[in-house]
Amino acid sequence: MAADAPATTRAAAPSTMDIKAPASTVDSAATRVGAEARAEPEVRRDTRALRRTDWLALFGALAGATALTAILFSEVAPFGAALGFVLVSYLLFLGLYALLVSLDETGLHVRDRLALAVVHGLALVLFSTLVVVVVYTLAKGWSALRHLNFFTQDMTQAGPLQPLTVGGITHGAVGTLEQIGIALAITIPLGLTCAVFLNEIPGPLARFVRTIADAMTALPSIVAGLFIYATLILQLGFNKSGFAASLAISVMMLPIIIRASDVVLRLVPGSLREASLALGASQWRTVWHVSLPTARSGLATAIILGTARGIGETSPVLLTAGYTATLNADPLHGPQVSLPLLTFTLVRSGQPGFIARGFGAGAALMELVLLLFVIARLIGGRGAGQLSRRQQRRRTALSIRDSERFAPAGSPVPQPEPPTRVGGMP
Amino acid sequence: MTTAVAPPVAAPGRAPEPEPRRRVVSRLNRTDRIFRGAARGSGLAVLVIMSLVGVFLAYRGWQALRVAGPSFLTTERWQPDAGRGGFGIAAVLVGSVLIGLVAIALATPLAIGTGLYISEYAPVGLRRTLISLVDLMAAVPSVVYGLWGFFLLQGHMLGVSRWIATYFGWIPIFRVDGVNPRDPLAAETSYTSSTLIAGMVVALMVAPIACSVMREAFSQAPLGEREGAFALGATRWGMIRTVVLPFGRGGIIGGTMLGLGRALGETITVFMIIAPIFVIQPHILANGGSSVAALIALKYGEASKLGISALMAAGLALFLLTLVVNFIASTIIARSRSGAQSEA
Questions:
Q1: Predicted ipTM of the assembly
Q2: A315–B119: do the CB atoms touch at under 8 Å?
Q3: Does residue A16 have a pLDDT over 80?
Q4: Is the dihedral of CA A85, A91, A92, A96 positive or negative?
Q5: What residues of B are in contact with residue A301 (Cβ under 8 Å)?
Q6: In angstroms, rounded to a whole number, what is the distance separating the alpha carbons of residues B309 and A278?
Q7: Which of A99, A320, B123, B281 sits most deeply, having the most CB atoms within 10 A of its CB?
Q8: Whole-structure pTM value
């Protein structure tokens, strides 16, 4: 939506030029002579250009703020915290910047520049936090990650005092993959069918389900775990197992997937659906052959993002999966640990060796999430109905085959009418 | 687009006599009936699962609620085996709300700033990347945020906490009891594991969620009004203040509430950082705090039947709280969206 905003303004620019040109030709002769007197072609002004003073003010304020803070922290008062340094110098920067800009601009522009600096600063905080979180976890986890055994062994042999060359996270990785697999096997069919229901069969029931599913997206994950713990383990008497954990993850993921795919399906153009129905396709065929394929990339993105959320949740697993240091590939029997739970348990033990392994497990988990994101970015992000080049080619080939199939059926192939004649119809 | 293939309405030879109005009855074939049945069934199944969560928690928590009576809401201690008056959610609920408020107070400016940056200031080519970065930030596992908060942020925050406590200690929520802020040799452990640090980490977790709602609302501010503001000579900030922010107000409020709902239910991060205590702790800088979710994570292993039931009751309270907050949020967001979108 936002992407085509500049396109329209760009398209609008030549049209105003076109209007101008005939307007000047019908002008009176006197003004035309006047215009030709200063006939040099007008240089197009760049309205967005940054002047040199803007840069000077920006970097001057930055340098001044840093220097002032350095003096303050080293000479005036014995502060030490790095966070405090950044905070103080940012505040000083805002003050100095406002002062410098106000030297040659009005108050209106000073406020504009300040807002620019504040907005950029806030965005920078958020994005740099992301970078710090990712880099810090990877850096701290590196000491464990660089040993190959970290990926091939479980923690059976590794006591608190064993070096990092013993023990690993295989059991957690296997548990994570199995649990998320089972959870996806439950949530994808149920979630997608429910999203289709919300879009295809509107009515009071669909509205109610949508409201409930929307409200449940904020279901605290620990409550999802508590629910499964209360029903499956306490009420029905099953033991803690990977299956219980995946049920808890499913309860948590279901509303997320429903909501995301509902939004994607709502963006399928109504005209496509109506065209299919008008050609006599049944509702089921319309959904299966038009709605779902059109929204395919969006749906895939929705599912992958839901998976990324589900894979990193600790609290539902904490209540339902139990903990074991050995590899347990059977999700139905016995406790089964997953990567987030492993990270949590190892770090809480307080032993330096275990903490290093915990960071390693956390880093592995985050790499998994990053990988999912890269995949989502590669296949998804396209709006409904926008095709990649390969899809376009395949669609064209299909369409040619269809027209060949229909051609010998009797009447000549109907040519699409030129659009100019359609314009005259009411 | 569809008008291009519209056929002529009446054949040219026939006279246009008024046709009797036909009754259009759509008869569904078998696959359609099965499809509609399955779709409706899945909708009902989702409804049943979701309401089961609430009903079952209420059913299991009923025993503890009956034992505790109204004291469940006013007691600070958590000793379920002591019977009536022995346990209640006063302390943990206040702790949850405090953490939520700290988180949202820090997250809202971050989210508004980032939302404005992405929708108004960032280069157009960079926008999609930034959006997926924000999405990625929302998907970073909570346990990783917990690691970061506990091992990195806490150490850096101690000095800041101490500074605030020293100079703003006269404001009640910033007071830290039992510490002389003027004593340079005082240990900094009284500032660890505090509500503020937990709230800060939770803020960074909920900011991306709030941000994506706000960004969407900002980017839907109509182009005409934007250009109108610029044409009247507004600076960029003037345009944002008079067009984007008023149009995005629903998104800002809704995103904030959505973030609050998430912050109230956040478990593992809070559990990793905070030192659990069961008294009402209104001083956000001081060591110790509590939240309902952390209480459940801490005590779920308890053997006694009443203890489990009491936890269910606490979970029910948390569930209802987040449900109400989130319901308000989605209502506001839906209302702010109505009319902004049109059928394609």
A1: 0.81
A2: no
A3: no
A4: positive
A5: none
A6: 57
A7: A320
A8: 0.79
